[in-house]
Amino acid sequence: MEADNHTFRVETEEPPSPLSGKETKNTIVLGLGFLFVFASYLSLQNLQGSLNDEGGLGVLSLSCLYGAAILSAIYAPTCITVVGVKRSMMIAFTGHLIYVASNFYPSFATLIPSSIILGAVTGPLWTSLGMYLTSCAISASERTGMELTTSLSRTNGIFFGMFELCNIVGNLLSSLVLYQGQYNSTNINSSAFCGANDCPQEETVDIIADPEPTVVYILLRVFLGCVATGLGVVSVFLQPIQHQSPANKNTIRKSLWSWFRLIIQMDIKFLLPFMLYTAIEEVVVFTELTKSYVSCPFGIQNVGYVMTAYGVCSASSSFLFSKIAKYARRYVLLGLAAVLQMVLMLWLYHWVPSHHDIHLVYVISSVWGVSEGIWKTQTNSVLGEIFQDNKQSAFAVYEGFKSIAFTCIFVYSSMLCTSIKLIIAMTFLVLGMTLYALAEVRYLKRSPQRTSEDDNEEAAKFETAVS
């Protein structure tokens, strides 16, 4: 869930010489490694709420994972300084291998510890990825004379173009394998327990037909093989780079202080509910939609196909709206995403899924994917422009609060009905967009680049619309 929202701006003073002339090759190797690993991980994450639904084990394991990820984001720079960039990635991929393996024997004694391990390596993984991609971009820029901004865009474009395929590949694999099993239909009225009526104390666990153990084992073997392949690709083919010297060492204390120093600023306070919502909406689609609106009424074997439609639309939307953003105001696009998701959540709140309208689930997931593409392209734009002088701290706060939100959501997810969780999501959407609009107004008023009469009128119109 995340992973699809990271923008990397880690600065390296001197590009490591081993990358010279091999920047594109190493970027592709990195993209292949992440594609194999996250095709497995993201697909397994989508199935956790359905495969391991007894006692809320699947959702609880995800809460432990993101809880550990909060701390890992803080100590990541120090960890990479000690271990190195490539080794940090290899250790993180090994953590993914342990996590997938623990699903062969899912229990509180196996899945919870492996989730904590995976969360503990999440921060170093994404931070080391950012350092590596930035090193490739700097090396290519100095070797060819290309502008650094263009080189960064090209390098990240190659990587994320490959990374976006993981949702499509992984979910297709899961449904193709799960459809080989036999599923007993139930006579229980699913409309009474599925959709918004899905509650922890009800009989949803009995409605969702679990796949045969042999089919699950086949799927997990495929996932395990994919992670092992990704680890092998990075271990063998990725060129190591020089990590930070002790003179540039970032301590945990400095990393933690940079968080709190930024949080006390007014602009970031306005954006905190907006940041929290970007995590909430991901959980709605990855857990509530997959469990309450797909697995419950239509069977777990359909989750992969539905999420494939989501992945295709999300990837296409990210590309499309990154182009449209040149001609449309940022707040207009974000407003469009907010309206789309509000309509979808109101629909989910009132809709009772039945066996005859499975096509509606594909419509919902596809439109949600379109709005997700807008969030991906524009959220980083908001932080990058409003906090131009403090980008790294702003993105660190963003990722940290998303992890906090993920943890809290997964904890209460096993205690509340889907209808209540939808109400919470809609509340944060309204609050987050309202405060974001105020932050945007403050920025438009004070920005030295927007002193023309036309831009002042634009800010006045926007403020009037908000009020």
Could you explain how this protein is built, in words?
By secondary structure, the protein is mainly α. It has one domain: Growth Hormone, Chain: A (Up-down Bundle). The chain has 16 helices and no strands. Helix 3 (85-102) packs antiparallel against helix 8, helix 6 (165-178) packs antiparallel against helix 11 and helix 9 (252-263) packs across helix 14 (391-413). The protein is globular, with a radius of gyration of 22 Å.
Fold blueprint:
Elements: H1 23-51, H2 57-83, H3 85-102, H4 111-144, H5 148-163, H6 165-178, H7 204-207, H8 213-237, H9 252-263, H10 266-298, H11 303-324, H12 330-350, H13 359-386, H14 391-413, H15 418-446, H16 453-466
Helix pairs in contact: 1-2, 1-4, 1-5, 1-6, 1-8, 1-10, 2-3, 2-4, 2-14, 3-4, 3-8, 4-5, 6-8, 6-11, 9-14, 10-13, 10-14, 10-15, 11-13, 12-13, 12-15, 15-16
